Amino acid sequence: MLEQLSWKVGGQQGEGIDSTGEIFATALNRHGYFVYGYRHFSSRIKGGHTNYKIRVSTKVRPANADKLDILIAFDQETIDFNAHELRSGGVIIADEKFKPVAPEGMDIRFFVVPLTKFAEEAGSAIMKNMVALGASACVLGLPATTFESLITDMFLRKGQKVVDSNMTAISKGIEFMKENGGEIEEFRLQPGDGKQRLFLMGNDAIGLGALAAGARIMPAYPITPASDVMEYLIKKFPKVGGHVIQTEDEIAAITMTIGANYAGVRALTATSGPGLSLMMEAIGLAGMTETPCVIVDTQRGGPSTGMPTKHEQSDMYAVLFGTHGEIPKIVLAPATAEECFYMTIDAFNYAEKYQLPVLLITDLALSLAKQTVEPLEYDRIVIDRGNLATPEQLAAVEDGKLFKRYEFTKDNISPRVFPGQKGGVHHVTGVEHTEVGRPTEDATIRTKMMNKRLNKVQGELPNSVSYTGDENPDLLVIGVGSTIGVIDEALERLAAEGKSVGHAQVRVLSPFPTETLQKYVDKAKKVLVVENNATGQLKHLMQFFGVKGELQSQLKYDGNPYLPHEIYSHCKELF
Amino acid sequence: MATVKEFRNEVRPNWCPGCGDFSVQAAIQRALANTGREPENVAVISGIGCSGRISGYIHSYGVHAIHGRALPVAQGVKLANRNLTVIAAGGDGDGFGIGLNHFMHAVRRNMDITYIVMDNQIYGLTKGQTSPTSAHGFKNKTTPEGNIEHALTPAQVALGAGISFLAQGFSTDINQLTRLIEEAINYKGFSLVNVFSPCVTFNKINTYDWYKEHIVNLDNDESYDSGNRAAAMAKVVETNGLCTGLIFKEDRVAYEDLIPGYKQEPIVNQDITLSRELFNQCLKEFA
Question: How far apart (Å, rounded) are the C-alpha atoms in residues A524 and A501?
Fold first, then answer.
């Protein structure tokens, strides 16, 4: 029986590849499997090969599998482009309609199924994906009922007849495979635990996190792979009186975000590399004026326009050092969709607590891949708006005088006021300023203000680094963002072979957790930093911020996330 | 009710003696008092340059932001708190050079914001370079042989972009300017008041006398119809953009009143807690 399975559907963009994958993944998620869905898409809307790869497992596996077990092909290109990923004995289910040709010289099982024909018989050719799902179900030994609740939820509003015809299409797929040797013993999938969990992508989790954190304004400019965050909130904000505004460019997006935060509303924007570059000057303004704001950067292949629909982790330098001058900044790097939710809430709390820009960075795989997540907990939502001026503080300001918005305090955090509050009138400027916001070039005040801003955050933030594995490992692997799943999987294999390994996951890049990382590095014999970029940004950041020790790099920057065996093989060489 | 005095502060503007911007500042302060605003309910958002300093010279909330970005900051403020009177202000380089894209889109969006541009046809604070409104042939630090580019005419651009409220003033006529700013503040939608505000230090061509000679005051033309966009455009073209008064005004629903689900009560005053019920509803979509 299989503990895990890798399944892929492919065809032309625009012919329902996404929805086929979604239905397969969601149905299995509902049956208590851990599912990971990774879409391969090109920078075009219709036409061109696209595929959706789903990993189903009885354990948490937020990563692609090394090999493919089942490939559903809606066209010959799908076979030609993807058959090489199949494991020996793997299955291809191809639509009879395009007269499929089996790949040469491969040990695979090739099923030509009348997907379109059966779909037409069931009511409409568009249901060929349902026939394909039925055919897959047969191979895995899953009954048609696996899909029933989902099909009902999806189509009942169109009438019971539509539900029935979809179920018929699924059954036709199952029956055909049964009659043609498609029930394969070794493909039986272990049952899931039946627990109800969520299935969502990082971008959805960020959107939901922002909503839960009380964000109510999002100015943003569309860009792959960030747009889903705004698209999610466009649906939700009207229910809570908020608003997403599609701006003319990224500079407008960030400056509007700053304006809204200045005026007292939690606001965010989301972008990717090229947009982030445009926002840099304004991020400096937020730092200088101590205006909270949350900026989501979903990293993709760079530099310049790079590879807009491909995965990379190469904005770390830009995010940390991007604006001119020196400003305080917090940079959070969640690793899973679940963390995207909770850390987005943290981002808003930190932004207001420390009155500075908070950047939340993800990578394409984390932003767009869907994964099974334990139910998110309402009771863990905490809103901390930081140091807001009290009515007494406001009443103490004489008429015509200015409020000390940038008052020097012990913890370097001054009380905030919002326009509209009597007594709070003050001036905000990107120019160096006094405690009431008046421009100044006074050397003493300048130095004091710089110190105040730069010392607002002291020490490391909580949970900056997590650790799993042996206490004193022979090999320590350090990762950031979505590499968490592949590293875990690779190290699990090594541990099963008796190797001593550890995994440190960096979740905060600013303030950089030098001390904690040093502690783990000191305990390990060898250290490998795994990341998706060409220059080893995380490794260099560790060195820049003073982590001592010999650090090795494993780098991949071809646009695709790691496969577990790539990290496994590399690590194995190091013992 | 607040008086003009309450919109004043103790700061001495770092403008050159004789700068046109002094009158613009005074006109804004008068207009705010005349329209019954209180300092704490006003936010003046400015860009950079000499005129960008204006947010610091008016006793109200204010942001002196970055070059060209006054309008998006102002729109963010307005979205957060629609009860505020939001005034964006800056110069011709700020608004029609680096910020022109934002201007066109602010026009298109039509939020209830008043935008005041102090147009002196030159970059002042950087000591006299050619601006987007400098005339063709204009000789200056960056165009010693004469400007080979043509000037942008703000009024023409604004009308072309579909603006719903457009006025122009001249900084020596503070009474007209005050009246125009008042009307712009009271207008429920995006309004531009473009002010000819001479730079006495660096612009030796477009002086007070030069403007006096060239400006056509529409207040003196009873036959002029400010409700007709085509007539407004014709007048702007005819005067080469150098006309003052209310040039065009039409009724249009402001952006804020078209947002689905957006409440009359400003967001900033609302409870931001997400209800457990709505949270659970959101989770269901991912099950």
Answer: 9
Quote the tokens at residue A224: 């792959």
**In the sheet where A465-469 sits, what is the strand order?**
A465-469, A501-506, A475-480, A526-531, A552-555
- At A41, the pLDDT band (50, 70, 90 cuts) reads confident
Tokens of A563: 């496969």
pLDDT of residue A47: 67
d(CA B117, CA B103): 11
pLDDT at B146: 95
- In the stretch 58-97 of chain B, residues with CB closer than 8 A to chain A read 59-66, 69, 71-81, 83-84
CB neighbours (10 Å) of residue A455? 12
Contact A207, B279 (CB under 8 A): no
Architecture of domain A465-573: 3-Layer(aba) Sandwich (3.40)
Strand order in the sheet with A268-271: A268-271, A293-299, A357-363, A330-332, A508-510
Contact B64 A249 (CB under 8 A): no
* Positive or negative torsion for Cα A191, A197, A198, A202: negative
Instruction: Please tell me the pTM assigned to this model.
Output: 0.97
- Put simply, the answer to whether B282 touches A423 (Cβ < 8 Å) is no
Using alpha carbons, select from A364, A371, A314, A317 the residue that is nearest to residue A556.
A314
Residue A511: name the closest of A452, A468, A456, A550 by CA. Answer: A456
Q: What is the layout of strands, in order, in the sheet containing A34-40?
A: A108-113, A86-95, A68-73, A4-12, A49-57, A34-40, A370-373, A198-201
Domains of chain B: 4-285 (3.40.50.970)
3-state secondary structure of A365: helix
A449-469 pLDDT per residue, tens:
999 999 999 999 999 999 999
Burial of A208 from C-beta contacts in 10 A (0-12 / 13-18 / 19+): buried
In A, which residues are within 8 Å of B104 by CB distance? 248
Q: What is the DSSP string of A194-228?
A: ----EEEEHHHHHHHHHHHTT--EEEE---TTTHH
**Do A465-573 and A200-380 have the same topology in CATH?**
yes
Q: Delimit the domains of chain A by residue range.
A: 4-187, 200-380, 387-458, 465-573
Residues in Cβ contact with B70 at an 8 Å cutoff, skipping those fewer than 6 apart = B45, B46, B47, B52, B88, B89, B90, B94, B95, B99, B115
Tell me whether residues B283 and A198 touch, CB distance under 8 A.
Answer: yes
- Choose the closest CB to A241 out of B42, B270, B280: B270
DSSP labels for A231-252? Answer: HHHHHHHHHHT-EEEE-SSHHH
Q: Spell out the residues 6+ positions from residue A275 whose beta carbon is closer than 8 angstroms to its own.
A: A221, A223, A226, A250, A253
Q: CATH says A200-380 is which class?
A: alpha beta
Q: Which CATH number fits domain A4-187: 1.10.460.10, 3.30.457.10, 3.40.920.10, 3.40.50.880?
A: 3.40.920.10
